[in-house]
Write a structure and sequence with these properties.
single chain, mainly alpha, Acyl carrier protein, Non-ribosomal Peptide Synthetase Peptidyl Carrier Protein, Chain A, PP-bd_ACP
Length: 85
């Protein structure tokens, strides 16, 4: 699970072009939206694309994404359970 969390951090940094951040800058429990990383709705769309492209996960309900994208911990748990790639 720790390897998946590190991979998610790396993919988020690349997908959203967070050039001034490293994997070490993101704590597993940091909020991705609001506080923490301070991502916005455009970034959420980028994360949805990333999940589809990298893990074969298609999110159709935006409300579902809100819970999944709370933190790296919640994303990793969801990906581990639902990935098809």
């Amino acid at each position: 699970m720790e390897a998946l969390k590190q991979e998610l951090k790396k993919n988020i940094i690349e997908q959203i072009n967070l050039e001034d951040m490293t994997v070490e800058d993101i704590a597993n429990e940091d909020l991705l939206f609001g506080g923490g990383l301070g991502l916005d709705s455009i970034d959420a769309l980028e994360l949805i694309v990333m999940l589809d492209k990298n893990y074969g996960i298609r999110l159709t309900d935006p409300k579902e994404g809100r819970a999944i994208f709370e933190s790296i911990n919640t994303m990793a748990a969801y990906v581990a359970e639902h990935r098809t790639k």
